[in-house]
């Protein structure tokens, strides 16, 4: 009888979803980060073309149980200005961005997770992260949604609104100040860790 009980308990335990924890890296080809803002001429957006980072998360099947660590680095000089039709502007627009972000001195924008406040059963995440832009580090609240994909990858999507001046950045100007960008920006992220 004891042997049958042990076998039954063993079968029950094996049928439970296994909890796994592994370090995963950003899949740059499957990830997208966009920075969007406004100006006196038209709205603008920049795509970050070079990003890297790591994630350590605890998963049970297709459910994300916890995020233990998460980092993302974005190369400032890989940011490219996009038109509405998806084509690139000339490099003059990008140079204004690089100058405003002091890209020669601070070549990366860095995101480091500090604390996860909550993860819902549907994957909604509320967290505190330290974001460093142009050498200024700030702790900010970030919300998003995290999903475990069928191949075990974790996809994190969301949007964060902030002000350039919060990071001591003077909003860029063009054409001798005739065109001015607004202080408010949003960062939209759709990042896959594998």
From TrEMBL:
<feature type="domain" description="Lipid/polyisoprenoid-binding YceI-like">
    <location>
        <begin position="26"/>
        <end position="192"/>
    </location>
</feature>
<dbReference type="InterPro" id="IPR036761">
    <property type="entry name" value="TTHA0802/YceI-like_sf"/>
</dbReference>
<feature type="signal peptide">
    <location>
        <begin position="1"/>
        <end position="22"/>
    </location>
</feature>
<dbReference type="InterPro" id="IPR007372">
    <property type="entry name" value="Lipid/polyisoprenoid-bd_YceI"/>
</dbReference>
<keyword id="KW-0732">Signal</keyword>
<dbReference type="Pfam" id="PF04264">
    <property type="entry name" value="YceI"/>
</dbReference>
<protein>
    <recommendedName>
        <fullName>Lipid/polyisoprenoid-binding YceI-like domain-containing protein</fullName>
    </recommendedName>
</protein>
